[in-house]
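**User:** I keep going back and forth on a fold encoding question. It is easy to fool oneself when nobody else works the same problem. Could you pick a protein and write out its sequence and tokenised fold? Could you put it straight underneath, so I can go through it closely?

**Assistant:**
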Amino acid sequence: MSRCCRRLNQLACQAQNALLVATTQPVYRRPQPIVERTHKRDTGYSKPNVPNVAPTPSSSSSSASASYGFLQRRAARIEEEQYIAEQTPQSTHLRDLFGLRFSAELSRRILTHASHAAAAQGHNSGLSFIGRRVLESYFLLMISSSPALTPSDDLEALSSHALNTYLLGQHVGRSWELGRVLRWVPAVSSPTDIDLPAGEGRSIGLYKVQGDTVAAVLGGVFREFGASTAQRLFHTRIMPHVLSGLPDRFHGDVTAACNRMGGLQAPLARTKKPVKVPDTGLIVTLP
């Protein structure tokens, strides 16, 4: 009996010692190899196999430039066809005279006096009012900066003499041959001032009508093409013809301003305006 108990105690001590060793010594574990995960979640979308080629900047920019150039040429051709289709004797005369493309409606309005039957559709009184103010503004700017101006000079008197309506009609209007295309009701049968004796044009009112039309032309140019074009028109096409209404000491200022703008035959500035290309919705700027 005693021998059996001693044996049991020995087994219990051995088991306790084995348990103590197992809990205190580290356990060696074999390292597992790292395997890259290749399984992908199936989303139903597969990326197309497209070669990754970067676009060439020069080729893309040149393509865009060529496309825009094509649209410019197309818009210019369409505008040219429309302008030719709508061309009138009035717009043709003003274009040949100034090198500017007046619309048919504006050219008819500029060259239609209130006395004409077609004045119900528009006449030049409003444009003449604007042009008269533009004339006076540019004239006063030129004279006020002249070294020949004295404190005793009356600017209003100088302006009224140089920009007299009859003087404008006699010299500027006759030089522009406005009587050939001007629509008005004269007091005599001949509507033009060609071959009229001196003074007869004034007696029948033609010079007055042509003077108002000169102002209307300037007003139309100011509204349609801008102030810089109107100023060039004033200094190169109007003032050199009305020197007789200015004192001699200001003639040099008129000539200097004309030469500074390019002379009597200098081309008037043309504005670049945007044009919508039909069937595309695109807007391009004509050269």
Notes: The chain is about 55% helix and 0% strand. The beta strands are 274-276, 283-285.
